[in-house]
Amino acid sequence: MMRMIQILPELDIGGVERHVIDLSNELAERGHDILVISNGGQMQRQLSGKVLHRSLPVHKKNPFTAWSCSGKISSWIRKEGWELIHAHSRVPAWIAWRTSSKANVPWIYTAHACYSLNYGLIPLKHAKFVISVSETVRDHIKDYLPEKHIIIPAALPEPTVKWDPQNRGKNRFIFVGRLTKIKGLSTVIEALGKLKNENWTLDVLGDGPEREELEKRSVVLGLNDKITFHGYSEEADSFMSRSSCLLFPSHSEGYGLVLARAAQIGLPVIASNIPTVLKMAGSKEGLVDPGDSKGWQSAIVDFLYSGRSVVIPVFNIHTLKSMVDSSESIYFDLICK
């Protein structure tokens, strides 16, 4: 049994949160002691009862706050015997680096996205190990990587629902993700604005800083009776299984957990032509340039009239077991050898 700390900014909405929750829950099932430190959030209740959570403002980009958090975590390590820190995101990396030197425990880092290449990534060179969730992420941050680094693709548990092909004819589109500019939903809404007389609906699952603007734009385009903003939902799998097609218009992705989930469920997709998606799909056929509203309009029309979509081979999707096995091996090497 090992005793490990996972640090991430918040447990609100997003792929990093999903990754840490699934990793922590599975590690706890395997008998390890896991402490998750974050500022909390809507997804916190998805942590297993076997996982300990403590709230600290580890999301704040304030050096004095980070210093204080490091002091508290160092105290917990000395008093409770925690053996390793696993940081996710940049502010937690700075906190983990400082805490590691104070408490004399190793720390590692998982890079989940293509971050801005600046001083915020400096701690990575001082980590004992850096994990990238995809080749795209690894290649992007290559100048900041320490000697020991590896790619461990993000993964999800097996879904409990599957898509019914009879749903294809419903023309019920779905978008799942945080509502930020990089996710590209505005492009889809502009494309759908040209198709308001067609028979379709769109369910938007997610929240974020762009939600109000996106809702207003939908009204301006006369789409408020066709697009429903549900906010964050823990029923995303169920929504997917009842939908006709996932719209995945991201401008950039570290891995693309939502796309992977659609593949697991069997849901058809229309997706952006970005490196992560291309790697997962195995071909650029049917992919749409991000930000190209005319291209998205054309792809959506093709789906409405011919059912044409992108096929993501499920064998390209990694299992949660393989992800946790690989992470557990790194922990063991750093703690027990």
What does this 3D model show about the protein?
The chain is an alpha/beta fold and 337 residues long. It has two domains: 3-155 and 318-336, Glycogen Phosphorylase B (Rossmann fold), CATH 3.40.50.2000; 165-316, Glycogen Phosphorylase B (Rossmann fold, 3-Layer(aba) Sandwich), CATH 3.40.50.2000. The protein has eleven helices and twelve strands. The strands form two sheets. Strands 3-2-1-4-5-6-7 form a seven-stranded parallel β-sheet, with helices on both faces. A five-stranded parallel β-sheet has the order 10-9-8-11-12, with helices on both faces. Helix 3 (90-103) links the parallel strand 4 and strand 5 (107-111). Helix 1 (15-29) packs across helix 11, helix 2 (63-80) packs across helix 3 (90-103) and helix 5 (185-193) crosses helix 10. The radius of gyration is 21 Å and the shape is elongated. The two termini are 14 Å apart.
Task: Describe the largest sheet.
Answer: 7 strands, parallel
- CATH class of the largest domain equals Alpha Beta
Q: What is the N-to-C succession of helices and strands?
A: EHEEHEHEEHEEHEHEHEHEHHH
Spatial strand arrangement across the major sheet: 3-2-1-4-5-6-7
Which word captures the global form? elongated
Oligomer: single chain
Task: Work out the strand percent.
Answer: 15-25%
Question: How many domains is the backbone divided into?
Answer: 2
Helix-strand category:
alpha/beta
Radius of gyration from the CA trace? 21 Å
Q: What's a concise summary of this model?
A:
The protein is an alpha/beta fold. Helix content is 37%, strand content 16%.
